[in-house]
Amino acid sequence: MEKHAIIVGAGLVGSLWAVLLAKRGYAVDVYELREDPRQAGFIGGRSINLAMSTRGWRALQKAGIENKIREVAIPMRGRMMHSEAGELTFQPYGKEGQAIYSVSRGGLNIELIQIADQYKGLRFHFAQKCLGVDLRANTVHFEHTGTGERRSVQAPLIFGTDGAFSAVRRSMMKLPRFNYSQQYLEYGYKELHIPPLPDGSHAIDENALHIWPRGQFMMIALPNIDGSFTGTLFLPFEGEANSFQQLQTDEQILDFFRQHFSDSIPLIPGLLEDFRNNPTAGLATIRCLPWCYEDKVLLIGDASHAIVPFYGQGMNSGFEDCSILDELMETHQDNWSHIIKAFNQDRPKDANAVADLALRNFVEMRDRVADPRFLLRKEIEAHLNEKYPEDFLPLYSQVTFSHIPYSHALAEGLAQDGLFDRILAIEGVAENWRDNPEVGEVFRQWLREKGR
Amino acid sequence: MEKHAIIVGAGLVGSLWAVLLAKRGYAVDVYELREDPRQAGFIGGRSINLAMSTRGWRALQKAGIENKIREVAIPMRGRMMHSEAGELTFQPYGKEGQAIYSVSRGGLNIELIQIADQYKGLRFHFAQKCLGVDLRANTVHFEHTGTGERRSVQAPLIFGTDGAFSAVRRSMMKLPRFNYSQQYLEYGYKELHIPPLPDGSHAIDENALHIWPRGQFMMIALPNIDGSFTGTLFLPFEGEANSFQQLQTDEQILDFFRQHFSDSIPLIPGLLEDFRNNPTAGLATIRCLPWCYEDKVLLIGDASHAIVPFYGQGMNSGFEDCSILDELMETHQDNWSHIIKAFNQDRPKDANAVADLALRNFVEMRDRVADPRFLLRKEIEAHLNEKYPEDFLPLYSQVTFSHIPYSHALAEGLAQDGLFDRILAIEGVAENWRDNPEVGEVFRQWLREKGR
Lengths: 452, 452
Hints:
The structure is a homodimer. By secondary structure, the first copy, chain A, is of the alpha+beta class. Chain A has three domains: about 5-70 and about 105-180 and about 285-360, FAD/NAD(P)-binding domain (3-Layer(bba) Sandwich); about 180-280, no CATH class; about 370-450, no CATH class. Helices cover about 40% and strands about 25% of the residues of chain A. In chain A, helix 1 runs parallel beside helix 5 (about 105-115), helix 1 runs parallel beside helix 9 (about 315-330) and helix 3 packs across helix 9 (about 315-330). The interface of A and B includes residues 176 and 178 of A. Strand 13 of chain A pairs antiparallel with strand 13 (about 180-195) of chain B.
């Protein structure tokens, strides 16, 4: 088979995947709806941050740009919770030295496009709107967004990396027996900008992901390299109280912030302007199956599995798709019939698991992180992990700091919930867990029941 | 508001709903993709049968054609199971006198169109393909399938009764935060024709729904008024054994039937022809939310909730939609803002429940009906229902012979599963249940736990 692929979508996953294919000697044509971000700048001009973790780094390493990105990534070592009274509580994500990394989406995308563009057989085509795919004929139809000129291109392999609203997937939806689901949360989100201090430094601790957990809603903030933070308010669209619907006038918005996020008001000087000008966006989980059409067309990343952002795994899981496919290319020596079959068979269960994990983590972030028993569990988890590193790795670490398949991590997380139901029921555990031998006994009993 | 509605789709639900609106003084324009079935005959010319039950009859009664349809409906009083050896076992659906009714889809549709056409303010427009709905502008776009002529029509109310592949729903999918899911079974189905005997009578008992349960697959047959039966084979699409994929040659098909459905071979003289000529169709469950756009556009029936056929509730649930809307019109005195809001708020949970019930019943029909313990449970259920009519109505009867909301029925069915786990665990219950006081004790204890 001719080693030639079309990639639809030059976002993070598409441009990374282009690099990995080019590295293996494929001629690659990458078509992207937007203008070239190297000239046009990144859409909106606002940095939307990502939380890069272990799975993402591995893919960047494969692409050869891990070190370059590490230089501009800001480590976030844990969560900094802000109470209504403005008190701060820090909860580390992992062990000493472990962190997730705040990275600018636009900056990373441009880096990936730049590295990709160095490959001789790789060409980018910008401002190309995908009109659809003729699956049987290996043909993709595009229209230039500026000139309106249409063209149809062919290749033996077509990859849809065109995101949650994928045009490639839309063509696949007409296939018989295509399973598809899009589910929105009742919540929307709105970005709010926290500028740097006058000296250019960060206004709050830059090495943490800040959370204002308020039960049914929350605000978060991630650091940017320019000293600013990107704040994001997550709030129900509708409802009698504490909803976007109820925040119409300046006074209502300010009252709401005074009541729930008072320590953030001085941090967000443009609060009312941001609130009015920035859109209220929705949060969807998208699942489908199959991810492929025969051995010709394959969806990767958000195009086949878009998830809510609460585990910071959207980009990481899309990058992991690329790593896995790269390894399958190695294993199956470019036999795409085998590669696509194996990927479509094994990967969707992990994508489903991380979708569920992300939904689950929304409750954790907006509600449970404010619960002393949750923080107690996190402390005991860290202790068990230190004492029994072979036998206990907390769920968060499995997802964030390992390459354990998401579906295994989710199953283990449910088992860990059972363990902590028992540990937290021990009398006086909050005070005596360090010395109470019952904690270790319950743990070892749990291990035995799991057959370890 | 002008009392004028557009209905997209003149299938069973659309034509019934047209009658109910016309009865309340609405001007109604009904647009249908197909030709007028009164002239063209019903597509394919083959009767696809329906199982009309209590919810469906009520809607027909509202439309004033219950008696007319009863005349051509064939009561099926229970399931007739055919074992591999050809032995028959009968299991009644309900109490003496209760039955579900085999009705021809085409015949019923024509009756509904005829009754609707008698209303002065009601007009049918056939051969009109819906191209989409401009939701904000209350406008629907159609193209005549013969002439290609396009037209756009407006009304304050637009109803999408255009089935599982609804064009109205497709326009709503572009709305922000539209939840949607289409899930296919791994099974396909194929129709096989069982002709009448030479004297015109039915070849097998006409007052039963015949099932050949074979664990992972099954065949069923429903009687038609002309003495024939419509047989349907449900089989996995793919797989090493017992799948459509494996049935390619005449010999493979015949071997399969000889092994699993030997008593049906003489009943289906055109087996090989039917198998080759009839399509293998898929089985989807479709869910969405919301079902409406503002107080202007509403989906009804399969367009918002298509289900698999195994509980015989597809048409019945669509008809029940119409009954409920008719009652809401009464309650809210044609205030469509209230009617649509109430319907969209209350009805989807019942549609979800009947979707789950239908999936669940596939396992029951293809597998559990062949299990002596299942038949034992059915006998004890009938006994409990007779002895405690106020306190125990079997799930099947709730769904089929009552107007209890599907979601309540499903919850009660799950509770009944718990009851029978306990009853069937009683020692020797299969032999002694009629005399063993423990059965009644377990039942009364279960009632107490439910707080009755």
